[in-house]
Amino acid sequence: MPAEAAVQSCWATAIASATTGIGPQAVKISPGLGSTKGGQEVQIDGSFFVPDADQVLFGTNPGTIVAESSTTILVSAPPGVAGTVDVTVQTPDGTSIAGTFTYITPGQLGTPPISLGVHWR
Average pLDDT, stretch 5-14? Predict the structure, then answer.
């Protein structure tokens, strides 16, 4: 076998073993909002993700994958402008829309509710 054919064959085998042949099926994103400054960790649940070959886009901006398995991706949202964008998961086998993510300005985040210490029995 010529050296070039051997290299192509090894490359094709490596790619084939890294993919499932079935596109990703993203079904849930949480949380669905975060600051325009970025950095919000977002969990995407689904199936047929391809660890080390996935890309998550917030609109057209790539997020930073923190951890992933074939069923869950933890990604840090990139900075964005106020508004809602589609979040998509791309694998070598296809693309799936996980849901939407709403960017809000830090002033819109407000303050957490105050607990009055009332306990119902």
Answer: 39
